[in-house]
Amino acid sequence: MALGWDEEWAAAQAAARAESEGTGPSGQRGGGGGRSGVAPDLSVPPAELHASAAAAEAAEEDLRPVLDRAVTEIAGAAASLGSWSVSAQLAESGTGWGGALADLADRLTEHAAGLRMVVAGTTSLDEEIRDQFRGWGTV
User: What is the DSSP-derived secondary structure letter of residue 84?
Assistant: First the structure.
């Protein structure tokens, strides 16, 4: 029997919870990928974060002109159908989708900025910790 969306989502959440708690599907310790009780390594190298930011910006640069052209063409199509009853609906649809698609493109640049801020923040924190240890004479 196939699972519905809710059941499938609940199963995925339970599996993730079990993995994060270090238990496997059977509920026994040590099932989390052989790393019994050890928290997963969530670190991401700064170079990968910078690459992800660059990819997000490149996607926005590629996407923005296509989205702008689509919105312009929908508006032109709606205007050319001015006397038809579907014209207003087409214009409304173009306006709605235009706003949503512009928001999508804007979010890509916001995510890129956020990724760069994470790198800057973690690098700064690492430097502060290093400086503190140097001040104690341990490094």
Answer: S
Nearest-CA neighbor of 75 among 83, 62, 66, 87? 87
Number of Cβ atoms within 10 Å of the Cβ of 112: 21
Give pLDDT tens digits for 59-98.
999 999 999 999 999 999 999 998 888 999 999 998 898 9
Three-point CA angle 91, 95, 99, nearest 5° = 170
**What is the distance between the alpha carbons of residues 114 and 111, in angstroms, rounded to a whole number?**
5
Q: Is the pTM of this model over 0.85?
A: no
What's the CA angle centered on 36, arms 35 and 39, to 5 degrees?
65
